[in-house]
Amino acid sequence: MEERNVSDVGEFGLIARAAARFGIPPAGEVWSGDDCAVLRFDGRDLLFTTDVLVEGVDFERSWARGADVGWKAVAINASDIAAMGGMPRRAVTTLVVPRSTPLAFVDALADGLAEGARAHGVGVVGGDVSRGSEITVGLAMIGLPTVAPVLRSGAKSGDLICVTGTLGAAAAGLLVLQGLDAPRAARERLSARQLRPIARVEEGRAIALGGATAMIDISDGLIADLGHILAASGVGCSVDPGSIPIDPDVLEVMGSDASELALHGGEDFELLFTIPEDEFRAVTQVVAEFGTMVTRIGEITEEGKLWGGEEWMEIEVAGWDHLRNR
Ligand SMILES: [Mg+2]
Predict the structure, then answer these.
(1) Rounded to the nearest whole angstrom, what is the distance from the C-alpha of residue 82 to the centroid of ligand 1?
(2) 8 CA to middle of ligand 1, Å?
(3) What global pTM score does this model have?
């Protein structure tokens, strides 16, 4: 009989198999299954998360400089803390490099880590280095919640589904970096969204304070990440396709493929959240003070999934999986 490998179970299957072995969290803590773990020490909550970038999978040296990779390692972790409504605080990093790695790349990587850390209010306090076949940059980050951490599991029927900013730009940025033709201004904005994402930290805090019931950052794609909220909360949704805030540069560059990138592209690191209708206007106004728009794209229902009023199956299958190459 042929031996199974990790691609047979996929990223989420692999996480589930490991988490089952780690046991059950003590009361008040949340372990695997949200953007961050929520830990409790001496009655205080702490947010704890980790993410890793691997050459050939998450970036290529042909289009990402060391400084970009360092910045992004910080930003994507800070985004997970933002998605709980928390403030990123400290990080440790792990670096795996082949012997042949140019010193200039690693110096630039450290510059990017430091720059990203400053921009997100984080101190990088240490790390570890080893040797391997691909450049691999891991980061683990702790953060402090402002109010009770906003989990994925709190969405209630009747809540509005909202998203910050615009969607599809990071995925279009990747295509542009890989050689897709685009007007210069759009090309620069789109590649920046891929290389230098900025975590929505202040926005996430305002959304948490404003009464969000569930929140997640868009890393796998709008549809996949909405699916995570629906599954964790045990609810359904009704989405208005015409309301999805597709990035204007993506519309210009991608034409009829723009909506595919906005729905499934991922890595936009915008915040997707649910909130009672009564709180929507106030939150939108506070988040606008940070220069970020909030768009309502639908609402949470008891069950089922509607897309423009029609029965919708797609949400079950879409989304990025590192181990399945999808
Ligand atoms: Mg996340």
Answers:
(1) 9
(2) 23
(3) 0.94
